[in-house]
Amino acid sequence: MDNDQLYYLSISEAAALLRRGQISPLALTRAYLERIHAKDPLINSYVTILADSALKEAVTATLEIEKRTYRGPLHGIPIGLKDLFDTEGIRTTAQSKVLEHRVPDQDATVVSKLRDSGAILLGKLAMHEFALGGPTTSLFKPARNPWCIDRIPGGSSSGSGAAVAAGLCMGALGSDTMGSIRGPAA
């Protein structure tokens, strides 16, 4: 399978390949990190790339799956997180200068559950400031629509939608109050 096909597998398709040993979490994570470094400078979907920790998580997932210790359907799946969700020891800004240097001392519950499931956290994704209004450029450049770079994905989960559409992660965590995921996903 070539990488272009790999980037657009569904999570369930990738999980089946991982479980059968046809691809490893480490190979999958490396492929996504390479694509992020090649494509994201134009798209701006990631505000923080967690390459080192993602590779460590991928090594752990690879060893676990090889030993038939399978945590479930997200085990070894590379995902992105909207920069709204707290991540222990990793800057979480909500795209605001007010929180520019904020580093939480614990994971949000959903992040903790993703880690427990064996998901690989590739990085933190762009959003509109405090998940309201938008687009804003208060801290980072706004995410771009990967299919029409002159446009933005819209919605506060713009980085999540752009990253999945561009094949920069297999899935992404976002939030939705007034169309914040539905807009970018459309």
Your description of this structure?
This protein is α/β, with parallel strands linked by helices and 186 residues long. The protein has a single domain (3-185), classed as Amidase signature (AS) domain (Amidase signature (AS) enzymes, Alpha-Beta Complex), CATH 3.90.1300.10. It is 37% helix and 10% strand. It has a four-stranded mixed beta sheet, sandwiched between helices. Strand 2 (78-82), helix 5 (109-116) and strand 3 form a beta-alpha-beta unit. Helix 3 (25-43) runs antiparallel to helix 4 (51-66). The protein is globular, with a radius of gyration of 16 Å.
Strand content: 5-15%
Question: How many beta-strand runs?
Answer: 4
Distance between the termini: 28 Å
Radius of gyration over all CA atoms, rounded? 16 Å
CATH class division = Alpha Beta
Q: Strand sequence of the main sheet, in spatial order?
A: 1-3-2-4
Overall geometric form: globular
Helix content: 25-40%
Most strands sheet: 4 strands, mixed
- Encode the helix/strand succession as letters: HHHEHEHEHEH
Q: Which residue ranges are poorly predicted, with pLDDT under 50 across at least 5 consecutive positions?
A: none
What is the CATH topology assignment?
Answer: Amidase signature (AS) enzymes
**Mean pLDDT level:** 92
- The CATH homologous superfamily is called Amidase signature (AS) domain
How would you classify the helix and strand content by structural class?
Answer: alpha/beta
Supply the number of helical segments: 7
Q: Please, how many domains?
A: 1
Please name the CATH architecture.
Alpha-Beta Complex
